[in-house]
Design goal:
Layout lengths: L2 H19 L34 H17 L3 H24 L5 H6 L1 H10 L2 H11 L4 H13 L5 H29 L4 H11 L4 H22 L5 H18 L4 H13 L6 H32 L2
């Protein structure tokens, strides 16, 4: 190679290297990553480092962690308001499920699989889509994304516990509000509501706990996958199959049960509040925590955490 050509190529290489690794000029008031890059802006470099989500499923993890960190940092007033609304939206979805698949005893007797599929398809997918599409705080989904943010050191343990505690309480209040209003509405679904509520306390602690694990594994996968999409149609597709699946399988969701159990009692189910709490809400909540925080949040952090 001619010396002149070699000199030109070396000059070009030096220029490209300097461009790639030159210091970033910080802007007052902007947010920066640990490398000093503006947050949310993907910057090219020879090392492949970006401050935005990585490509592929690792990027889904990055987005979920960012979502969890934002939820943990949400002001208390906003958090409690959104938690109330999310509990109410899940309750409305649960009521729709009882109104459809839960109110066809003849179909359930002749074809229980079809009755389960009907109950799963109409109801809770609608509820979770309202939470994700309108903005919300749902404790079962937060068990995955907020715990992942904590493991990634994007949120403190105090923030994690505060979020889960406040959101759980807010979801409960929202669910109870819908239960009382739905009872006043007298929509004619008492037999289905009583049957559903009675079945939820007629199981062992271990069975309720295991159903809670499997349920929130699916619910958190729906939330996790939906973080990769911006449009409502794509979020709906991410939500539908896991949510309809857990209902059809007969798994247990603590927030849905915050509505189904009180509503069943108000409609005439022979269940005490103590039975509802001890035989269902406690084991199901613990199972939901394991399913979301461990089988989704911790496992994906182990796979993709930086």
């Amino acid at each position: 190679m001619a010396p002149k050509t070699t000199t030109i190529l070396l000059a070009l290489a030096a220029t490209v290297t300097c461009e790639a690794f030159q210091p970033v000029q910080l802007r007052p008031g902007a947010s920066y990553s640990k490398h000093g890059h503006p947050m949310g802006v993907a910057l090219r470099s020879t090392g492949g480092d970006t401050s935005g989500p990585r490509p592929g499923t690792a990027g889904v993890y990055d987005t979920a962690v960012a979502l969890g960190a934002a939820k943990c940092a949400t002001p208390l007033k906003t958090m409690t308001t959104l938690a109330f609304l999310s509990g109410a939206h899940i309750a409305l979805g649960a009521m729709l499920a009882v109104s459809t698949g839960g109110s066809v005893p003849a179909l359930k007797a002749q074809n229980p699989g079809a009755a389960r599929a009907l109950m799963g398809s109409f109801g809770l997918p609608m509820g979770l889509l309202m939470v994700l599409g309108g903005g919300g705080e749902l404790v079962t989904g937060n068990m995955a994304v907020c715990s992942a943010a904590w493991q990634a050191k994007k949120a403190s343990f105090k923030q994690l516990i505060t979020n889960l505690g406040v959101v759980y309480a807010g979801n409960l209040v929202g669910s109870l509000a819908v239960a009382f209003i739905a009872n006043m509405a007298a929509t004619g679904i008492a037999p289905g509501a009583i049957a559903v509520a009675s079945g939820k306390v007629a199981q062992t602690f271990g069975a309720a706990f295991a159903k809670g694990i499997l349920c929130n594994w699916l619910v958190c996968m729906a939330v996790w996958m939906s973080t990769a999409h911006k449009d409502l149609a794509s979020k709906a597709a991410a939500v539908f199959f896991p949510i309809s699946g857990f209902i059809a399988c007969g798994f247990e969701h603590s927030v849905a049960n915050m509505f189904l159990l009180p509503f069943g009692i108000l409609q005439g189910a022979d269940i005490t509040v103590g039975q509802a709490v001890v035989k269902n809400l406690i084991p199901v909540t613990l199972g939901n925590l394991v399913g979301g925080a461990i089988f989704v949040g911790a496992f994906y952090h182990n796979a993709y955490g930086k």
